Amino acid sequence: MKGSVIVARFHSWHQCVASSRAHRLASKALRSMPAGANPVACRPVALKRGRLPLFKDFLRLGAGALLLLSTITGCATLQVVPAEKLHGQQFAEGTEPIAHIYAANWGWYLLKYIPLVTGNLDKPGVPRLPVLLTDNVRVDLLVDKVAQESQRQGGSIISDVRTRDRSLYLWWTLFVWLNEFEVSANASRPDPSKAGSPVSPPADDSLPAH
C-alpha cells in the first residue's frame, strides 16, 4: 500500500515538472515574437508537453543522495569499562579482570562493498576528518583494535569475543549501504595471588558429543 502511494506521488510530481517546463517554453516563444505579431497565428498548432525520462529522475535522486552522504562522516567508537565497575566479578577463574572493551565502526558504502566514507580507527571517538575510499569497516580490524587496547590496559588474555553486524540498505539512496560492525571482549591477566594454578577457560555451554 505504501509503495503505491509513493509511486502515485512521484508520478504527480513528474507531471508537475513536465507541465512547468511546457509553460516556460511557451512563455519563451511568446517573448521572442516580433512586435505586432499575432500570437494565435505564430504559436504552434499543438504544444507538446515535455516528459523527462524516468531513469533521469532516478539518476538525479541518486546523485542528490550521494551528495548528501558526502557531507556526513563515518564514526569509530572505542569504549572501555574498567575493572572498578565490575564490583569484584571475574571473567574467568584464576584471572584478574582488567576491562570490558567495546569497539565499533560504520561508514557509507556504494553497492555495499565499495567504501565511500568511513570512520577513522586510529583515533576513535575524536572529531576528525573521515577516511575516504578506505575499507575500514571490517571485523578483523575491530578485533585487532580490541586486542591492542587490551594490551595497552595491561591485559594478556581476551575472552568472550563477540561480533555484531548492523549493516543496512538505504533504499532511498538506490545504491548506498550503511555498513556497521561491533566487537566486544573481556580483557584479563593471570591472578598473581594464584600463581602456579591453571587458568580455567570460560564455561562451555555446548552439548557433549555422543
Can you describe this structure in just a few lines?
The chain has 210 residues and is of the alpha+beta class.
Radius of gyration: 30 Å
Query: What is the helix fraction of residues, given as a range?
Result: 25-40%
Structural class: alpha+beta
Number of helices: 4
Name the helix and strand elements from N-terminus to C-terminus, one letter apiece. HHHEEEEHEEE
Shape: rod-shaped
Q: Give the low-pLDDT segments.
A: 40-50
Span between N and C termini? 52 Å
Strand content of the residues, in percent? 25-35%
The total count of strands amounts to 7
Main sheet: strands, sense, barrel: 7 strands, antiparallel
Average pLDDT, rounded to a whole number, is 75
How would you characterize the overall build of this protein?
With 210 residues, the chain is an alpha+beta fold. It is built from 4 helices and 7 strands. Strands 1, 2, 3, 4, 5, 6 and 7 form a 7-stranded antiparallel sheet that branches. The longest helix is centred in the first third of the chain and has 30 residues, at 2-31. It is rod-shaped, with a radius of gyration of 30 Å.
Keywords:
7 strands, 4 helices, 210 residues, seven-stranded antiparallel sheet, single chain, rod-shaped, 28% strand, alpha+beta
Topology diagram in text:
Layout: H1 2-31, H2 39-42, H3 54-70, E1 75-82, E2 95-110, E3 114-118, E4 131-132, H4 139-152, E5 157-165, E6 168-170, E7 176-190
Antiparallel strand pairs: 1-2, 2-3, 2-7, 3-4, 5-7, 6-7
